[in-house]
Amino acid sequence: MDDHVKRMLRREILLARGKLTADDVRESATALAGRALALPELAHARTVAAYVSVGSEPGTPALLDALRARGVRVLLPALLPDNDLDWGPYTGEGSLARVRHGGGRMTLLEPSGERLGPDAVTGADAVLLPGLAVDARGMRLGRGGGSYDRVLARLERSGAHPALVVLLYDPEVLERVPEEPHDRPVHAVVTPSGVRRFG
Question: What is the enzyme's class at the highest EC level (predicted)?
Answer without folding.
Answer: ligase
